[in-house]
Design goal:
It is built from five helices and seven strands. By secondary structure, the chain is an alpha+beta fold. The protein has a domain at 52-113 and 150-203. β5 and β6 form a beta hairpin. The longest helix has 33 residues, at 17-49.
Length: 222
């Protein structure tokens, strides 16, 4: 009897199943975070150590700076930045030739709406929208034309730099933010996978792969 009691007292207690599952989930999340950080850090090192990156950044900055200057002049006169680059010519920029591949955008928090009805209308364009990509892009463009009066701040993304041997599966570009008003390197890593799928990771801008067409649903319409 005494042995039985002692055996019961020293028997190891098993961790309840819910707690074991929580610990396993926490371990998986931590491992995923470490893997993500390692991938980001390695890709960023490749971009920064690429001998052509700074040269390409300087060239793109020189190309895009007149566009930034025109945007600042527009804001000085109108109080807000324009919703499209087309509003710059010809008053603030003689021509938009050479700037067609620049991506001009703004964060949603910097949008200035014409009315509260426009905010409601925007919600119909968010989430799952069962429309063809081209038609959806036209809807978004029409919404901006009808409902946005301007931007408080903006972001500008240059065309992709020419690829080289060191930048395989990497796209690089120059990225400008009106806050804090300077150009930096942006990049996107594209890792092909099985069954035609791919994994993408980007910073300072969005991925815009050369094989994407204007009708590609991966193209951000906003």
């Amino acid at each position: 009897m005494l042995k039985a009691i002692m055996g019961m007292a020293t028997a190891p207690q098993q961790t309840p199943l819910p707690y074991r599952r929580m610990r396993m989930l926490a371990f998986v999340m931590l491992a995923s975070a470490i893997a993500f950080w390692a991938r980001f850090h390695y890709a960023n090192l490749r971009v920064q150590n690429d001998t052509t990156s700074q040269v390409d950044l300087k060239a793109a900055t020189n190309q895009g700076q007149p566009l930034v200057d025109a945007l600042e002049k527009y804001r000085a006169d109108n109080g807000l930045y324009p919703t499209t680059l087309n509003q710059l010519a010809p008053a603030y920029l003689p021509s938009l030739n050479g700037y067609a591949a620049f991506r001009y955008s703004a964060r949603r928090s910097d949008w200035v709406y014409l009315s509260n009805a426009c905010i409601t209308r925007q919600k119909t364009l968010e989430g799952w929208v069962l429309r063809e990509a081209k038609a959806y892009q036209q809807d978004v463009a029409q919404f901006k034309h009808d409902c946005l009066t301007g931007y408080r701040d903006f972001q500008l993304q240059s065309p992709d730099f020419a690829p080289d041997a060191q930048s395989r599966y990497l796209e690089r570009w120059a990225y400008y933010d009106s806050q804090p008003e300077h150009w930096v390197l942006g990049w996107c890593e594209h890792v092909p996978a099985s069954k035609g799928r791919a994994s993408e990771l980007a910073t300072n801008g969005i991925c815009r792969w050369r094989h994407h067409s204007p009708n590609d649903p991966l193209t951000d319409p906003w």
